[in-house]
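B., you asked whether I could sanity-check this one before it goes into the benchmark set. Here's the sequence:
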Amino acid sequence: MRYEAISVDRHLRVHITLDETLVRELDRRVGARRRSAFISSAVERALEDERRWELVWAAAGQVADEGHAWDEDPAAWVVAERGRDASRVG
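And here's what the prediction gave me:
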């Protein structure tokens, strides 16, 4: 019999401090019983943004400044590239 590891999301409690005005607005918008879900979602989005920016900065400078098919006429190159894909509209 073969067993595979099952990934189980564990929920951990954390203690955070928020300004009273912020908590009042949070409660007004989502309700006191939905704070954790809202904050969790907001943190997930913020972390995903951070991951994307890491990728952007890691890629910066990776493309050479010259020697590309689009160097002479970028607009013409874009039109030609779009024409290669029959599924594109326009």
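One thing to flag: The mean pLDDT is 89. Otherwise nothing jumped out at me.
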